[in-house]
Amino acid sequence: MDRTQLISELYASRLVAVVRSRSPEDALKLANAAADGGIKFIEITFSVPGALDVIKELSRRRGIHVGTGTVLALQQAERAIGVGAEFIVSPSLELNLVGLCHTANIACFPGAATPTEIIAAQRSRADLVKIFPADLVGGPYFIRQMQGPFPDVRYMVSGGVTLKNVKDYVQAGVVGICLGSAYLGGLLEKKGKKPFVLEMQKFVKAVAQAQAKKSKLK
């Protein structure tokens, strides 16, 4: 899929499930449960054992987009793209990944946490700038503050997203809203699949409601 189209689809659904599990089996279980709950974007971090095999397996599932997170080196990005990753995410400002990804028509989301890093990511033509850790730098308030000097930057956020603040991120115009791996993994392990799926559906509903409200205000 063209990376521009991918961003458009992410903007329509907003939510990204981040998977950081102890085994390939746990990663597949968590990713598929998130997808069953209506989450259309899945990020498999490179810290997952056998991450490439997990990405390859999930890329066969229809209706979802699978990417790779915690990408810190060109070789990691190349290998992930080779097995079907549709987007590449970094926790830090890995600007050398942008050109590689764009040559392959793959979306790239480098991490940033300061105004200097945000403008550097924008100048590198990053598709989205991932604010991490979003909760520690100010959450939706930080995004709104950064929109003043950087009105053209499009954001992803990761860190501290909950049902209480997900609507605020939508209202702030954030394109990608990551549901954290610790939260997702703990929820599935403690509650089981059915309550987990219901919780994901609550997030999907909350995003839809916030998008509808935002559209009415335009």
What does it look like?
With 218 residues, this protein is α/β, with parallel strands linked by helices. It has one domain (3-217): Alpha-Beta Barrel (TIM Barrel). Helix content is 52%, strand content 15%. It has 11 helices and 9 strands. The chain has helices at residues 3-13, 24-36, 51-58, 74-82, 96-103, 115-123, 134-137, 139-147, 166-171, 181-191, 193-217; strands spanning 15-19, 41-45, 65-69, 87-89, 107-109, 111-112, 129-131, 155-157, 176-179. The strands form 2 sheets. A 7-stranded parallel β-sheet has the order 3-2-1-9-8-7-6. Strands 4-5 form a two-stranded parallel ribbon. The mean pLDDT is 96.
Order of helices and strands: HEHEHEHEHEEHEHHEHEHH
Oligomeric state of the chains in view: single chain
State the major sheet.
7 strands, parallel
Shape: globular
Helices, by number, come to 11
> Strands across the major sheet, in which order?
3-2-1-9-8-7-6
Would you tell me the structural class of the helices and strands? alpha/beta
The CATH H-level superfamily is Aldolase class I
Number of domains: 1
Mind telling me the CATH class? Alpha Beta
What is the CATH topology?
Answer: TIM Barrel
Tell me the total number of β-strands.
9
Which radius of gyration do the C-alpha atoms yield? 16 Å
Name the beta content range. 15-25%
Secondary structure: elements and pairs:
Layout: H1 3-13, E1 15-19, H2 24-36, E2 41-45, H3 51-58, E3 65-69, H4 74-82, E4 87-89, H5 96-103, E5 107-109, E6 111-112, H6 115-123, E7 129-131, H7 134-137, H8 139-147, E8 155-157, H9 166-171, E9 176-179, H10 181-191, H11 193-217
Parallel strand pairs: 1-2, 1-9, 2-3, 4-5, 6-7, 7-8, 8-9
